[in-house]
Amino acid sequence: MKTLLTQFNWFLKDYWLKRSHFSSWLLLAVLVGLGLAVVAINVHINEWSKTFYDTLTAFEADKLYGLIGEYLIYIAIFVVCAVYRAWLRKLLIIRWRSHLTEQFTGQWLSRRAFYRMSLNDHTDNPDQRIAEDINVFVSRTIELFISLITNLAQLYSFLVILWKLSGTHTFHIFGHSLTVTGYLVWLAVAYTLAGSIITQLVGQKLHRFNYNQQRFEANFRASLLRKHDHAEQIALYGGEAKEQAGLRREFQDIIGNWRKLMNKERDLGFFTTAYDRFSLMLPVLASVPLFMAKAITLGGLMQIRSAFSAVFNSLSWFVFAYSILPEWSASLQRLSQFRQTVEREQKQDKPVLEGRELSFNGLNLYTPARIPVLSNIQGRIRPGAWTRLAGPSGLGKSTLLRTIGGLWSHYDGQWQQSPGSRLLLPQKAYIGNGTLAEALSYPNEPAASDAVLHELLEAVGLGSWKAHLNSALNWAQTLSAGEQQRLAVARALLSRPDYLYLDESTSHLDETAAREVLMLIKQRLPDTTVVMVSHQSSLADIYDEVLDLSRFKAA
Ligand SMILES: Nc1ncnc2c1ncn2[C@@H]1O[C@H](COP(=O)(O)OP(=O)(O)OP(=O)(O)O)[C@@H](O)[C@H]1O
């Protein structure tokens, strides 16, 4: 409980205790005000119903018009308050959610936390945390808070009314007499409590089935998405039948659980529907003794009925709120854990030691599970030269490139680099959505003129795509693997880094094309220090130096 409060406190401080969010406080105050206004109107309507039914029974037709007019005014105010309450609540939700989403995505994407988290299998899915949990947490917090105040006010107002209307009554049961004050209040409390306990008991299994249903639906969706992402490979293998069988199997889980869920809901429905329906008549039946004794009029009976129903609804809300608290606290916990993981990963970001050149002095590399990869690496990379990292597959060449590229933090010992920008081109370039000009300029916005980009495309061998510079195609699907590598080289030429790290970045090109592309880099970026990994042995003359990492293989 204490941790939950501490976690919640962070979210309060982060948004609600900042001066800049004063307008959200105003919004919240208006929302609470509208909720209280709705309660006040309900109280008036409750009093009105007594007068109205008493007027009816007294056949005072001339008074009816005035009463109907009064009712229409109440309804008009009620409608405006209720509609704006829902509208403003949504406005407040989207404000707080925007702030948190900005905050979470910003933190997650800063200091490479997102990259390190992607290396750990056990880290939560960011898509669920950022998209789903923030939404659940924000909506539930606001809904719970506002309805708590409104329901407390409604409960108090109508309990007072019901208490007054019940008066003190003496019941005669089996020869005994029992005098009770406010008996309708006790009846409402007992009826709601009994109903809620039975609903909880019958519906207990529903939670599990609902949870499983969401899980199975998510699995099915993810599976469909995988087919979309790997459409080409599946089509090439002719794996359609196998995939359909897999989808059918996964959908069977949905069907199986759905059946269990609908049966359980049916069982619960028998009780809850009867329970709700009966709650409409119960106060009438319970007031019959007062009515028969002429202690109350028909108007009084109707007033009791509506007051009872208000008390019943408010009490039921507390039970409902209690049942959604676990969902709320689970989203709060998951968000807090995600936030703490991001903070921890950000702290892993190690500052680069500045020196005169790129050099290693007893550098030890590990896997995220702390298994040694390379130990005690020594050496220097000559500024402006081209150095190839050599060694057998799986030795740790890419890991070293990731380290000097600023991605890998699982190391100790020392390495240093002279100040300057760096760019790492992996084997497979990332190409997001957008135009070819945007893909070329990534991660910056296109700043170069079309003429410059046309020339660049021509230079890297993508001249045939010049006409499509401003077309938004699915470039990751459209360009061949080799063309994607050419595009990555074009990006490097555009951004002109001081350090360029090439991790098998020409592996999809034939050796002549690879040589042309590398020579282009040499020619256009003569001062850039290049460190590369390549298995294309015929390119040996391209490098000035070779750093053989085999001797640093971890024991
Ligand atoms: N994210 C990771 N989690 C666990 N182990 C990893 C991770 N990344 C790399 N490794 C391990 O570290 C070792 C070195 O991998 P690395 O990719 O650096 O080798 P490499 O020399 O570049 O190999 P190749 O020439 O085949 O590309 C391998 O045993 C690999 O399994």
UniProtKB/TrEMBL annotation:
<dbReference type="InterPro" id="IPR003593">
    <property type="entry name" value="AAA+_ATPase"/>
</dbReference>
<keyword id="KW-1003">Cell membrane</keyword>
<keyword id="KW-0067">ATP-binding</keyword>
<keyword id="KW-0812">Transmembrane</keyword>
<dbReference type="InterPro" id="IPR027417">
    <property type="entry name" value="P-loop_NTPase"/>
</dbReference>
<feature type="transmembrane region" description="Helical">
    <location>
        <begin position="144"/>
        <end position="163"/>
    </location>
</feature>
<feature type="transmembrane region" description="Helical">
    <location>
        <begin position="25"/>
        <end position="45"/>
    </location>
</feature>
<dbReference type="InterPro" id="IPR017871">
    <property type="entry name" value="ABC_transporter-like_CS"/>
</dbReference>
<protein>
    <submittedName>
        <fullName>ABC transporter ATP-binding protein/permease</fullName>
    </submittedName>
</protein>
<feature type="domain" description="ABC transmembrane type-1">
    <location>
        <begin position="22"/>
        <end position="327"/>
    </location>
</feature>
<dbReference type="Pfam" id="PF06472">
    <property type="entry name" value="ABC_membrane_2"/>
</dbReference>
<keyword id="KW-1133">Transmembrane helix</keyword>
<dbReference type="Pfam" id="PF00005">
    <property type="entry name" value="ABC_tran"/>
</dbReference>
<feature type="transmembrane region" description="Helical">
    <location>
        <begin position="268"/>
        <end position="292"/>
    </location>
</feature>
<dbReference type="InterPro" id="IPR036640">
    <property type="entry name" value="ABC1_TM_sf"/>
</dbReference>
<keyword id="KW-0472">Membrane</keyword>
<feature type="transmembrane region" description="Helical">
    <location>
        <begin position="65"/>
        <end position="87"/>
    </location>
</feature>
<dbReference type="GO" id="GO:0005524">
    <property type="term" value="F:ATP binding"/>
</dbReference>
<keyword id="KW-0547">Nucleotide-binding</keyword>
<dbReference type="InterPro" id="IPR003439">
    <property type="entry name" value="ABC_transporter-like_ATP-bd"/>
</dbReference>
<keyword id="KW-0813">Transport</keyword>
<dbReference type="InterPro" id="IPR050835">
    <property type="entry name" value="ABC_transporter_sub-D"/>
</dbReference>
<dbReference type="InterPro" id="IPR011527">
    <property type="entry name" value="ABC1_TM_dom"/>
</dbReference>
<feature type="domain" description="ABC transporter">
    <location>
        <begin position="358"/>
        <end position="555"/>
    </location>
</feature>
<feature type="transmembrane region" description="Helical">
    <location>
        <begin position="183"/>
        <end position="203"/>
    </location>
</feature>
